[in-house]
Amino acid sequence: MGAVAAGHESGRTLIEVGFGPGKGDSGSIFAGGSPDPAPVTNSACFSTITMTQASWLHALYQYDSTSASMKVVPAAAQASFGWSGENFKDMGKWFQALMADTFS
């Protein structure tokens, strides 16, 4: 199963979900490994409100074997209190990190 780490930045909780070597995975399903029986995923979104301000929200999902579906972890779902220039700057940093991770 993936590792979940939580931290704080700008007054909000950040959740990172990691999968890969050294993080408890059972190997690639493409290499004969098994799918994670209890997957954890996350969702994050920044919304541009003006040319210089943004808001954000995020949620963490865990697999619920009873319903055979992904369910939001209530304690790990948050949204910004309004919008701000600081959120807009964070959006730029988030986007740069996302592109670096995606295309590296």
What brief labels describe this structure?
104 residues, alpha+beta, 4-stranded antiparallel sheet, two-stranded antiparallel sheet, 18% helix, disordered N terminus
Strand segment tally: 6
> What string gives the helices and strands in order?
EEEEEEH
> What is the alpha-carbon Rg in Å?
16 Å
Mean pLDDT value: 80
Number of domains: 1
- Tell me the structural class: alpha+beta
Describe it for me?
By secondary structure, this protein is α+β, with helices and mostly antiparallel strands. It has one domain. Helix content is 18%, strand content 38%. The chain is built from one helix and six strands. The strands form two sheets. Strands 3, 4, 5 and 6 form a four-stranded antiparallel beta sheet that branches. The protein has a two-stranded antiparallel ribbon with strand order 1-2. A hairpin with a 2-residue loop joins strand 1 and strand 2. The longest helix has 19 residues. The N terminus is likely disordered.
How do the helices and strands line up, and which of them pair or pack?
Elements: E1 3-9, E2 12-18, E3 40-48, E4 54-64, E5 69-72, E6 78-79, H1 85-103
Antiparallel strand pairs: 1-2, 3-4, 4-5, 4-6
